[in-house]
Amino acid sequence: xxxxxxxxxxxxxxxxxxxxxxxxxxxxxxxxxxxxxxxxxxxxxxxxxxxxxxxxxxxxxxxxxxxxxxxxxxxxxxxxxxxxxxxxxxxxxxxxxxxxxxxxxxxxxxxxxxxxxxxxxxxxxxxxxxxxxxxxxxxxxxxxxxxxxxxxxxxxxxxxxxxxxxxxxxxxxxxxxxxxxxxxxxxxxxxxxxxxxxxxxxxxxxxxxxxxxxxxxxxxxxxxxxxxxxxxxxxxxxxxxxxxxxxxxxxxxxxxxxxxxxxxxxxxxxxxxxxxxxxxxxxxxxxxxxxxxxxxxxxxxxxxxxxxxxxxxxxxxxxxxxxxxxxxxxxxxxxxxxxxxxxxxxxxxxxxxxxxxxxxxxxxxxxxxxxxxxxxxxxxxxxxxxxxxxxxxxxxxxxxxxxxxxxxxxxx
Length: 412
Known about the structure:
- The protein has 19 helices and 14 strands.
- It has helices at 2-11, 13-24, 58-63, 65-74, 87-97, 111-121, 135-144, 157-164, 167-175, 185-193, 213-226, 241-247, 268-277, 306-312, 331-335, 350-358, 368-379, 382-398, 402-409; strands at 50-54, 79-84, 101-105, 125-129, 148-153, 179-182, 199-201, 230-237, 256-262, 282-284, 297-299, 315-318, 340-342, 362-364.
């Protein structure tokens, strides 16, 4: 099965290069460090032992923060190698960790590229975040005796169905891992159903992420600048959702400023154009100007300030959930005590979403019309906001501890 997979991956090489070029039209970073994607590196670690942590993009990079900090404290003689697959993940890693880590792109899953990567860095152990299952990479680590773990592991029903179509290859790959530290019981059961062994439930590392005090202070400063208006945040929105906001006049709720923070930075200009096209009065965060009284929407077109946006709002809607994108992380909002609204599509964070609703920290809406109705009712009810704030803080506090459990699972 792996031979067939390798053949298909090799045949897909021209399309991989074309995809880099296509994505670089909007994100030039995709044409930087291209050699790294094929196992060619300049960065060296000399004789210092390396702990390798792979975080594919922005969400995984942020979630890795408590684990990375704990690894540095527990293994001070080691250097941390942080690998990514996207320019935004790499930029986030640079903003969060600076020179404390070595960073590069993980190569595509070609045997020779993987071999060059492992030969160059010689990691003592590898940790893959969430759902990064690369057959050739896993096989090469097993052949070299390099312990490789899948941590903060999650597998949605949608992903499980996709992997089940290639269950032979998936099972062989999962069994070659040293262990899997799953987020939830449901995730663990799905991995086991694919043939994985050595699966434990460690919880979700995102609960251990502490909102940076400087970001919280910045958000409080923004909130003070808004004045008496209440603030509704639409966080990590995906394509099509902003149209739904406009169609349902989410930007015209009396006495409310709407903040929209698109999930992907390449969409910042698209959302700005959409607002202008519909005659919506808006400002861009990147302009760094005081919010004007007549402004209806503040477009969050900045990177690395998500905690500040949450701190600035009264109520947060979590994007990617009105349309079938699976939803984005609601834990960040709860960590700063913000009431959360989520749509019907939250399969990427199914258990966290269900637990947040059960705890009274979140409310589920059925569609964009219901979002406006429930957001308006909540913003008009300070007592309800206060109750949900306390529930959000309690919910996020009760689920901490995944970092400690992941560290206990690692052996090298």
